[in-house]
Sequence to fold (432 residues):
Amino acid sequence: MAIQTYLVFREPIFSPVDELEHTDYVRTIAETGHLPVYGSARIDPTLLAVYLHEYPGPFDTTHFNLPAVVYFDYEAVQFPVYYIAAAPVYVIFHRDARVAIYALRLQNVLYSAGLLLVLMLMLRWLFSARPEVAALAPLTFLLMPGVSMRHSQVTNQVLAALLLAALFALLLQKGKTSPGRQALAEGALLGIAVMTKITVLGAGPSVLAAWATRAGGIRPRLLPGAAGFTITMLPWLVWSLAVYHSPLPWVTTHLNVAICNCAPPNSAAVWNAFVRALWVNFVLPFEWVGSSGACTPQCYAISPRTEIMKVGLVVAGAVTVAALGWALYALRRRGTDIWRPALLALLAIAGVVTGIIGLDVSLNRFWSTDLREVYVFAAPMVLLLGGLAARFDRRWVVLVLGAVVILWLVIDYQIYTSTNCAGCPPSYFRVP
Fold:
């Protein structure tokens, strides 16, 4: 919490990508009492003044030459649970927009603290004889620089990650209570998490697998679980069908807003640059040290990094590969205590990655920050890491994972003592 609270105030307001748009979604609910409509929602002038460092003065359009996308609240496409939960905070502090934004950031720090607690309790239950695993595995993921920054800004990802972690904690239980009642609660929690961020749909196969591998199988659980999911989705479906004539706003609302050239890579060299940018933007906060996120070969160029940052990229890759390897090994040991957790975690990771690929292919849009959607899947990622760590002597676990945590803190120090602010508004927005 200490480092994330520091980042709340260290990171210039709206320098993180999409934070302006997420905040405007919250503001719309707080000030008008209704959801923004995707396609017609526009950024509030007061928030634009904050973004352009004009606040508390008014936003004057004659001083700036802004791209059309800056005025457009494209995050209005998101499902509403996070924004409804954040709106009361904005109402309390609305007299000063900057204070309200800091309050929203601190709310996400609290969600992140809750996420850490749930992950620790989950691993403590699974590996009761290994308290060091329960303590260090969650920190290894949550203190990764890209994640820690994301958890210190205004975004719907943190609450979605917390809800998904709570869902995983329930799914890992073997179902000693009434099957129908438990499935109803799990389906409802999945629905709330999906209404926070649609990416959570990638956990659907894990939910079905959890029900199928409990005593009695999936049959007594499928209908109550589907009912719980549907009930929590129903308010959105009624509103969205009335407004958009579809449960998905972007299906019927087609906007001609050019954000970037997102054509798929068309050569081995460009694919190599794209994959490298995906990984850099996953491990490190791309607003400061990653790629621009745009989709031309020139924009895949990575900003200068220190040698320690390069070590961090390699370490994160090695740990991820090792954790996935452990999970595949665990799947061969059906009947053991590790088989079911490994199955649920792998299915969730496969689900979200498949969803990312499907979105990119269907929209012909390959964005080099998409892997950051996996941040929402902190629970399965930490579950894989914890399972791997539990196979080793506790002294090695403390040494290796402790060293990784320290590595992340050193990289954070290097990033946030630098003078660049890649996400801040560029100088060419201002009219000379």
Remarks:
- DSSP finds 19 helices and no strands in the chain.
